[in-house]
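Worked example

This section walks through a single chain of length 150. The input is the sequence exactly as stored; nothing has been trimmed or padded.
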Amino acid sequence: MKLSPSKINTFLLFKLPSAYLTGVRVKSISENACETTVKHRWINQNPFNSMFWAVQGMAAELSTGAMVMAKIQQSERKISMLVASNKATFTKKARGRINYSCADGELIDAAIQKTISSGEGQTIWMKSEGKDEEGDVVSIFEFEWTLKVK
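Given that input, the structure is written out below as tokens.
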């Protein structure tokens, strides 16, 4: 079963309700890229009239993690995935609709193959860039994913 945006968004409702309730959604997913979206609303705002940083982080993490989930599913192996660390840079207030995109899918393929062949855990850094409706970068998140055969 191939993961699609609607399947992932349904998964969010049941397994990550805080992301779903704050408006985080997968817009598109392919072999090497994933785009998520979230709109600044009352439920996800901070006291400074912009989007709370944690909501931005959920959308950014999903743009990386959805691809990891899809690649693990394609491998037909039991592989655990976990965020070990992350970094974030904020460059502008997040208002309106923010789209996060990650195009690091090829990194996942190599890490999965290496963990399967060696049996050792692997780590990869994946980057997600958030842009507002004008195309300005509002934040950049980097996530260190760990992958290990169970």
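What to look for: Strands lie at 25-29, 34-39, 79-90, 97-102, 122-131, 137-149.
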